[in-house]
Design goal:
The protein is of the alpha+beta class. It is built from eight helices and 20 strands. The strands form six sheets. Strands 6, 7, 8, 11, 12 and 13 form a six-stranded antiparallel beta sheet that branches. The protein has a four-stranded mixed beta sheet with strand order 1-2-5-3. Strand 6 (about 70-75) and strand 7 form a beta hairpin. The two termini are about 25 Å apart. Flavin-adenine dinucleotide binds near residues 46 and 119.
Length: about 350
């Protein structure tokens, strides 16, 4: 029995019946097929999961394949096909060092390439869906390979067809289309523009943008760092709520409101948490609200999954009582309900 806490950025999680480490696409498919119809849990970097202290009664497949293929064209840029187990930020750094632009605002996000499309990772004004052209998967239902076009992935804010049908599609590799260049896309995120010393909508060198993003992330405990316990988290524990204009109109004037194309409004989970009376550093057992960012629930050293669940419930109840809005977890819960 291996304890799963070794595989997660929260450093919690009980034992798994068996863990298979797979480092090629063929090994991933063989491991899934060997499991038959019994439960499996796919783990990449373990940076977006909260696994129960009881562990997982089934096979854990730890994805570590990092095959890479590149087709470069002077006009359209680069088409890169990357194995699901490649480290996301190593991939971003490589694209920048080879003279490609696009992924710079997504620098420093923990985890693997294969998990990136699952919740359509995003940061500082951009989402990975802007750069994905194909996702190659193994479909556990039909027991066959299925490749999705970007449109078929049904990407939304922190969501996709893969997240909506948990466990069905195992991502084997992801294809990206990015342009050649040394200048970023327009910077749309005010905090990042300020850090770069430019106006929102202006561009900056890709290398400077990556550096600024890494510094902003480190200051918020949003870069994995064994010495910074604020980063012993799963990133944002809750998603930003999407609410109707009616609900939005009842929030205080100072609450952030980002209008969406479908008429609804996105607001800030961090703002709601902070203004509901939850403080940075507030704790329950070994679980602690990050001392830098209220949206991250962390392991201060000896937390159990139960501690984190209790703290998450406290945070959610506080926002519910103050604003009548129910926060939804962004983190994937394994053997746990909030
Ligand atoms: C400090 C910190 C900062 C973060 N900042 C951000 C951020 O800015 N933006 C953001 O979007 N996220 C952020 N996150 C969350 C996390 O980095 C992303 O969700 C990331 O994509 C998770 O990758 P992973 O490989 O660690 O996934 P895991 O945690 O291993 O898995 C996450 C989920 O995806 C499934 N999964 C993983 N790999 C596959 C696969 N190959 N096929 C099918 N299913 C799979 C798992 O079963 C699980 O349900 C942050 C996390 C931390 C700890």
């Amino acid at each position: 029995m291996t304890d799963l806490h070794k595989y997660t950025s929260l450093r919690v999680g009980g034992p798994a019946k068996s863990i298979v480490n797979v480092s090629t696409e063929a090994e991933i498919v063989a491991a899934i097929e060997a499991a038959g119809d019994s439960p499996i849990l796919i783990i990449g970097g373990g940076s977006n999961v909260l696994i129960s202290d009881k562990g997982f009664e089934g096979t854990v497949i730890h994805i570590a394949n990092n095959e890479a293929e590149a087709e470069v064209d002077a006009c359209s840029g680069a088409t890169l096909t990357i194995g699901a187990g490649e480290n996301w930020d190593d991939f971003v750094a490589t694209t920048i060092s080879r003279g490609y632009a696009g992924l710079e605002t997504l620098s420093g996000i923990p985890g693997t390439v294969g998990a990136a499309p699952i919740q359509n990772i995003g940061a500082y004004g951009h989402e990975v869906s802007e750069f994905i052209t194909r996702v190659r998967t193994y479909d556990r239902q039909t027991k066959a390979i299925k490749t999705f076009t970007s449109a078929e992935c049904e990407f939304e804010y922190r969501n996709s067809i893969f997240k909506r049908t948990p466990g069905r599609y195992i991502v084997l590799s992801v294809q990206f289309q990015i342009r050649t260049g040394e200048i970023s896309t327009p910077i749309t995120y005010a905090e990042l523009a300020k850090k770069l010393g430019i106006e929102v909508g202006e561009k900056a060198p890709v290398i400077d943008t990556r550096k600024a993003v890494m510094e902003l992330r480190a200051a918020k405990g949003m870069l994995l760092n064994p010495d910074d316990k604020d980063s012993w988290s799963a990133g944002s524990f809750f998603t930003n709520p999407i609410i109707t204009t009616d609900v939005a109109s009842q929030l205080p004037e100072s609450a952030p409101r980002w209008p969406l194309a479908d008429g609804r409004v996105k607001t800030s989970a961090a703002w709601l948490i902070e203004h509901s009376g939850i403080d940075k550093g507030q704790s329950h057992g070994g679980a602690r609200v990050s001392t830098k960012h209220v949206l991250a629930l962390t392991n201060s050293g000896n937390a159990t999954a139960d501690d984190l669940v209790a703290l998450a419930r406290e945070v959610r109840a506080s926002v519910q009582a103050k604003f009548g809005i129910t926060l939804e977890p962004e983190v994937n819960l394994v053997g746990i309900t909030l």
